[in-house]
Design a protein that fits this description.
Elements lengths: L7 H14 L3 E6 L2 H4 L14 H11 L1 H13 L6 H14 L10 H19 L9 H10 L8 E4 L5 H8 L4 E2 L2 E2 L5 E2 L1 H6 L7 E5 L2 E3 L1 E3 L5 E3 L6 E3 L7 H4 L4 H13 L3 E6 L6 H13 L4 E5 L8 H7 L5 E4 L3 E4 L2 E4 L11 H4 L3 E3 L6 E3 L4 H9 L3 H4 L4 H16 L9
Helix pairs in contact: 1-17, 3-4, 3-6, 5-6, 7-15, 11-12
C-alpha cells in the first residue's frame, strides 16, 4: 500500500521562486478571514470581525428597532449570516409592496436594508494602524520588483485597508473608477486592462465603503467611508447582478483565470461564496494552464467548499495546517531532510509549532504569515548564499506545482 505525503519544503521553495521573479501573472483573492486574523498592536480584538462576528454585531445593534423582524427573517434562512439576511431583506423590499411580512412592508424592508448597510459600514470602517502590517507587507512585495504583468487583487471585503496600504506606500492602483469630482465606473477600462503593469488592480467584488448610487442610479465612488453600496451577487436576481460595476468585476475575474499561465492565490476565503466558487471551478476546467493556490486556516476536513473544487480540479492546490490537497490527492504534511544546515531560516517562514499543543503545522493559512512569506520571498536579498539551492528546489518542484498531470505526492 502506497502512502502519500506532501513535502512543504518542495512546494514552498517553488512558490518563493515564482513570486520573487516578477514574470508570472499573479492575482490575490482575499476574503473576510484576512482582516479577522489581524490584531492591532495592544489589542486583543481582530481588526475587523469575520462574517459570523459581523453578523452578531449588526444584529445586536439593530435589535432595539428591528429585533423581532430580523429574528424571523434569520430563522427562515439555513446557515444564515449577514450577507444572506441582507439579500433576503432586499428581496422582500422589492416584492411585497404594502403587504406586511414579519411586521414590515416593502418600504420598511428598504429602510431595514439601508440600516444594515449603515451598521456594516460602521463596523468595517477601520483605519490601518501605523507601521508594518500584513497589508503593507503585501504591498511591499507588489512594489518590490519589476513586473511583466500587474498584480490583481480580488476581494469580497468592503473595508479600505488595501487602499490605505497602497496609498501609504505610494503604489499606484486602479479600482475601475475614473474621475475626480464624482468618480464613475468605467467597464471598458476594466475589460481592456491596458494600464501599465506597475499599476496594481484592486477589484471589490461585493462593493465597498465609499461607493454610493447617484441620482441616476449609477454607482460612483464618493471618497466618504459613510457611503455603503454593498451587494452579494449569488443571492440576488439576475438583473441586479448584471449592473455595473458588479458584472464587469466578475467578468474581470473570469478573464484573469482564462488567461494562459496565471496563478491565483486565495487567502482568508472559505469558498462558501457559491457565485465566486462556481466561476473559479468553471475557469479551472476550461483553462488547465491556470492554477489556484488556496491557503486555508482550518484543518483540511473542515474546508469542505475548497475541498470540493480541489478534489475535482488538479490545477487547484489546497494548503491547510495539517494536510494539503495537491493534484486531487489529500495527504498529511511531512517535511523532508534539510537541504542545507541553513534551511531552517527559510522553513520557519511557513512551518512552525502550535504554542498550546506543540504540534507542527503549516502556517500560511494565516493571512499575516502569508503576507510575511510574500514580503520576504526575494531570496537573493535575504538568503543570497542559498539562492542556488532555492533555484534547484524550485526547478524540481515546478512541474509538481503547476502541471495538472503530475503525481501530487512528495516524500
Amino acid at each position: 500500500m502506497t502512502i502519500s505525503v506532501h513535502n512543504p519544503d518542495q512546494y514552498m521553495a517553488s512558490l518563493r521562486q515564482i513570486i520573487a521573479q516578477g514574470r508570472k501573472r499573479i492575482g490575490l483573492l482575499v476574503g473576510a478571514g484576512a482582516p479577522a486574523g489581524i490584531f492591532p498592536p495592544n489589542s486583543d480584538k481582530p481588526l475587523i470581525p469575520a462574517v459570523a462576528g459581523l453578523t452578531n454585531m449588526v444584529m445586536e445593534s439593530l435589535k432595539g428597532e428591528y429585533g423581532k423582524t430580523l429574528d424571523a427573517v434569520r430563522a427562515e434562512i439555513e446557515n444564515s449570516n449577514i450577507e444572506t439576511i441582507l439579500s433576503r431583506v432586499r428581496s422582500l423590499a422589492g416584492v411585497i409592496g404594502k403587504t406586511k411580512v414579519h411586521d414590515l412592508d416593502g418600504a420598511g424592508y428598504k429602510k431595514l436594508s439601508e440600516a444594515i448597510c449603515e451598521q456594516i459600514g460602521k463596523i468595517v470602517n477601520q483605519p490601518l494602524y501605523a507601521g508594518s502590517s500584513p497589508y503593507t507587507e503585501f504591498v511591499t512585495w507588489i512594489s518590490g520588483t519589476g513586473r511583466e504583468h500587474p498584480v490583481e487583487i480580488f476581494t469580497t471585503n468592503y473595508d479600505l485597508l488595501f487602499e490605505q496600504a497602497l496609498e501609504r506606500t505610494r503604489v499606484p492602483f486602479f479600482d475601475g473608477f475614473t474621475g475626480s469630482y464624482e468618480p464613475f465606473f468605467d467597464p471598458s477600462s476594466v475589460a481592456s486592462n491596458d494600464l501599465p503593469a506597475r499599476w496594481t488592480r484592486l477589484w471589490k467584488l461585493h462593493g465597498s465603503l465609499g461607493w454610493a448610487a447617484n441620482a441616476r442610479g449609477e454607482v460612483v465612488r464618493t471618497g466618504q467611508a459613510t457611503a455603503t453600496h454593498l451587494v452579494f451577487p449569488e443571492h440576488l436576481k439576475y438583473d441586479q447582478t448584471q449592473k455595473a460595476p458588479y458584472a464587469a468585476l466578475f467578468d474581470r475575474l473570469r478573464a484573469f483565470l482564462m488567461t494562459p499561465d496565471t496563478l491565483l492565490i486565495a487567502t482568508g476565503f472559505s469558498f462558501a461564496d457559491a457565485h465566486i466558487s462556481a466561476r473559479i471551478d468553471e475557469c479551472l476546467a476550461a483553462n488547465p494552464s491556470a492554477s489556484v493556490f488556496a491557503f486555508q486556516f482550518k484543518p483540511l476536513e473542515q474546508e469542505v467548499y475548497a475541498c470540493d473544487i480541489a478534489g475535482r480540479r488538479a490545477n487547484m492546490s489546497l494548503y491547510s495546517p495539517d494536510k494539503a490537497m495537491i493534484n486531487g490527492i489529500a495527504a498529511p504534511w511531512m517535511p523532508g531532510d534539510m537541504p542545507t544546515r541553513d534551511w531552517g531560516a527559510i522553513r520557519a517562514t511557513y512551518w512552525g509549532r502550535d504554542e498550546n499543543s506543540g504540534a507542527a503545522y503549516f502556517q500560511l493559512g494565516r493571512f499575516d504569515r502569508l503576507a510575511r512569506f510574500f514580503a520576504s520571498s526575494r531570496a537573493a536579498q535575504h538568503f543570497p548564499h542559498l539562492e542556488p539551492v532555492l533555484e534547484t528546489a524550485a526547478s524540481e518542484a515546478a512541474d509538481a506545482l503547476l502541471v495538472a498531470a503530475s503525481t501530487g505526492s512528495a516524500a
